[in-house]
């Protein structure tokens, strides 16, 4: 497990407790024993004092500790007291302290040591655990949960809150987790938060730099499922996935906003942003990792000393997707990549910088690409030793087998380019295309409004007449007239013998 993953996992420990990814029974002792066993399997050393009285287990001086790899520090989580009470109906109530500190001592090899304390805080947190050892349900709610940077020491020098702060608050929290124990720990989780607010700031007087970032997210929801090996070895990701670790989850918000201010060398940039519905979906297994994200109604306004007027841009849609195979394989594996910036607009002030006469159409612009294909990974991407060995022996980590351009769209300034295509690659032929696996396939392109755009660029003085003539000649060589006015189309064919044809005419 890398250091970033460990830090994120520790700072979210309160959420880990609520999610309770361990098997439990209806007695307080069983709940605590299994929770402690699970945390121990993830790499934490767990210590605590236990006292039982009148069907209530009090766990005092709770300390979880973990050493970071390569001697780069350690992480500790502390709780003065956790109380687990038998409610008499087959369920257990779990009560946490109002404040639980996470202490991080970081000693990276190439930078100064950092010591910090992040307090996890809560108001009105209630948790009820019910069910059986084989199938349990954790239900919880809280008025407020938060994370606060309470102490920071850099290279032995204390840093006050006027120089660095980090505050996150989650208001009106409700959640439910179910845990089924069999050959794997099967976990299903749901979480809703009415509002998340954050306030981050730094100030570095010696470097004359500072920044303030604050904002909110409304109606945050999250759901997901995870299958965990019973004996989880967090220091060996490859082994975890080989033993069946997999999961998927979605996090979404109804909207959000942010305000920021950043100063560098005495120059200050300020701004604000907002967005509508947004979501991120992640799926991972021993075979592949997939990401999908989207945001609607994105708006950004900014004032910078480099421009004499405010900058304002908007985008109706922004989305991306990516699928990456991660396990070594003998056969081609699916991959995908997609990116969309839809209906992008910017303020007239920004347009007027390069087009004061309004020669170019200022309609919303869209750029979109959708790729799928297959690759054959030669090494497990979660095995750093295998990757390092490949690099040392100048070996490639994998090979590209096929690539399909499902859609290419560039729609801006009155012109539109559309494309699609399909290619296969011969990895045994690295000669025909100068070290690149030899491709074979077809790319279809259509271009609408190109001549009109060239005319506008000439009128603006951006393109000279002789340059425009050369561009038009080049287009005529690689394209034929399309179905409409000022429309061109082109079919580019790449043959296995290295020939390239444009609309049936050989160009290579």
From TrEMBL:
Give the InterPro entries listed for this entry.
DUF2125
Task: Give the signal peptide as a residue range, or say none if absent.
Answer: 1-24
Per UniProt, the keywords (alphabetical) are: Signal
Q: Does the entry feature the keyword Signal, yes or no?
A: yes
Annotated protein name in UniProt? DUF2125 domain-containing protein
* Organism encoding this protein: Puniceibacterium antarcticum
């Amino acid at each position: 497990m890398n250091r970033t993953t460990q830090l994120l996992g520790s700072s979210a420990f309160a959420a880990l407790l609520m999610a309770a990814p361990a098997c439990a029974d209806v007695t307080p002792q069983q709940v605590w024993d299994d929770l402690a066993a699970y945390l121990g399997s993830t790499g934490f050393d767990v210590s605590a004092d236990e006292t039982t009285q009148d069907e209530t287990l009090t766990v005092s001086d709770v300390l979880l500790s973990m050493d970071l790899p390569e001697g780069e520090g350690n992480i500790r989580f502390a709780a003065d007291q956790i109380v687990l009470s038998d409610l008499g109906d087959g369920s257990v109530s779990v009560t946490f302290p109002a404040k639980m500190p996470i202490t991080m001592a970081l000693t990276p090899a190439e930078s100064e040591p950092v010591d910090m304390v992040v307090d996890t805080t809560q108001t009105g947190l209630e948790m009820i655990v019910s069910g059986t050892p084989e199938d349990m349900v954790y239900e919880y709610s809280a008025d407020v949960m938060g994370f606060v940077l309470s102490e920071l020491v850099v290279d032995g020098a204390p840093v006050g809150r006027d120089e660095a702060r980090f505050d996150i608050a989650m208001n009106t929290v409700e959640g439910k987790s179910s845990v089924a124990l069999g050959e794997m720990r099967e976990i299903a989780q749901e979480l809703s938060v009415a509002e998340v607010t954050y306030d981050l700031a730094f100030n570095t007087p010696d470097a004359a730099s500072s920044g303030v970032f604050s904002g909110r997210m409304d109606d945050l929801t999250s759901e997901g499922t995870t299958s965990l090996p019973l004996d989880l070895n967090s220091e060996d990701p490859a082994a975890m996935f080989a033993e069946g670790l997999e999961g998927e989850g979605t996090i979404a918000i109804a909207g959000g906003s942010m305000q920021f201010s950043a100063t560098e060398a005495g120059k200050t940039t300020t701004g604000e942003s907002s967005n509508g519905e947004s979501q991120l979906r992640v799926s991972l297994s021993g075979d592949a990792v997939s990401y999908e994200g989207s945001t609607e109604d994105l708006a950004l306004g900014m004032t910078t000393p480099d421009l004499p007027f405010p900058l304002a841009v908007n985008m109706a849609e922004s989305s991306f997707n990516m699928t990456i195979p991660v396990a070594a394989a003998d056969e081609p594996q699916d991959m995908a990549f997609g990116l969309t910036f839809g209906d992008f607009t910017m303020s007239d002030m920004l347009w007027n910088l390069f087009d004061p006469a309004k020669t170019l159409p200022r309609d919303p612009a869209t750029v979109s690409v959708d790729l799928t294909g297959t690759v054959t990974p030669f090494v497990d991407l979660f095995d750093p030793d295998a990757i390092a060995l490949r690099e040392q022996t100048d070996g490639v980590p994998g090979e590209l087998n096929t690539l399909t351009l499902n859609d290419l769209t560039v729609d801006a300034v009155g012109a539109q380019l559309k494309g699609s295509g399909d290619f296969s690659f011969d990895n045994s032929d690295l000669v025909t295309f100068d070290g690149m696996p030899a491709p074979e396939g077809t790319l279809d392109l259509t271009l609408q409004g190109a001549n009109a755009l060239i005319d506008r660029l000439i009128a603006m003085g951006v393109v000279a007449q002789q340059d425009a003539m050369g561009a038009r000649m080049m287009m005529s060589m690689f394209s034929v007239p399309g179905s409409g006015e000022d429309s061109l189309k082109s079919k580019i064919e790449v043959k296995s013998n290295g020939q390239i044809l444009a609309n049936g005419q050989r160009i290579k």
